[in-house]
Write a structure and sequence with these properties.
The protein is α+β, with helices and mostly antiparallel strands. The protein folds into three domains: 96 residues, Rossmann fold (3-Layer(aba) Sandwich), CATH 3.40.50; 62 residues, ATP-grasp fold, A domain (Dna Ligase, domain 1); 194 residues, ATP-grasp fold, B domain (D-amino Acid Aminotransferase, Chain A, domain 1, 2-Layer Sandwich), CATH 3.30.470.20. Helix content is 32%, strand content 25%. An eight-stranded antiparallel sheet has the order 13-12-9-10-11-14-16-15, with helices on both faces. Helix 1 packs across helix 11.
Length: 404
Amino acid sequence: MLQEAPITLLCLASYFKGGRFIEACKRLGCHTILATREKVADEAWPREDIDEFFKIPDLSKQPDITHAISYLARDRRLARIVALDEFDTETAAALREHLRIPGMGETTARYFRDKLAMRMKAAEAEIRVPPFVHVLNHARVHTYTQQVPPPWVLKPRAEASAMGIKMVQNAEELWDWIASLGDRQSFFLLEKFLPGDVYHVDVIVWDKEVVFAAASKYWQPPMEVYQGGGVFITRTLPYGSEEQQELEAQTRQLVAAFGLVRGVAHVEFIKSREDGQFYFLESAARVGGAGIDQLVEEATDINLWAEWARLEVYAARGKPYRVPPARKDAAGLIVCLARQEYPDLTAYEAPEVVWRLLKKHHAGLIVASHDTARVEELLMSYSRRFAEDFLASAAPLEGHAGAG
């Protein structure tokens, strides 16, 4: 543990996540402040590791949040502000800008939050993206529909993952949707739907360099799971494989283009079935959700939350950060909504089962092995059993934006 005088970190969390980040901050000797919404204040936060706990009705409401945090800063020297949830990325950036605290500013935050900004920046850096158009100028949208055949997906610029996405089959349907948006049309983009497999790369960035990367592949696209129900599965790619190397290279290029100086990022790509090429889909300056952090840890021994805390603290103290050595095992994650309040997973007893999810009305586990084929075999078997033993369907929950 570092022995310097405590530094003060402010964590913003509109939703219940990031407990391991907070725990790591305490181990590093930080004075940790959590500001969270009243709606989730009673969740199982690691309160013994939180020095100050503040409940705020809405962390994104301006100028209220700026007034509140500025008031806190009257007698606290905030060294860093960290957004534990994706929905707080832009709020944290705005607060850093206003208070002149080091870290990601508002322009860079846009590349990790605004689906239009991230696509435009990626295309500028010559990273492949599906053909898209801003739903702003109707003549340009019409031209796009004449040049790019359907189906398309209509996407909100600021939601997370698959939230709010609409599949559109023809121009008549599209213009009906656009008309229904009214004054909110400019907050959307239209994109060519590319059938294919979806991948994610979870990275740690220090001094503008990707110092750790774990590439994985979803069993089926998160949008299909999120909107249609089903069992969510993802598994790590074999290290040194062609796909793993290409995805890591594209992610490094993307991080450099977006200007991320330090932190963590979750990046998604799709491999088009038509041409076999990878296309950039999404990026977020956060740890992957739905247990992806645990998947990465079981395969590599790297806990993304803890390392994120370490690099923030080391940066605040002017110390060099080094990521720990990583294992290179295979791991697979399987999660679904469950009919049972607390599903019984004891029948899933393979020695490769290394983690079980304990969450109300959810079933989930992780398998890990040196043998990639064994992981695939177990996921295939367990996916069928999960569908029979547990699977339930429900409307998507507010703020829970699908898998990644």
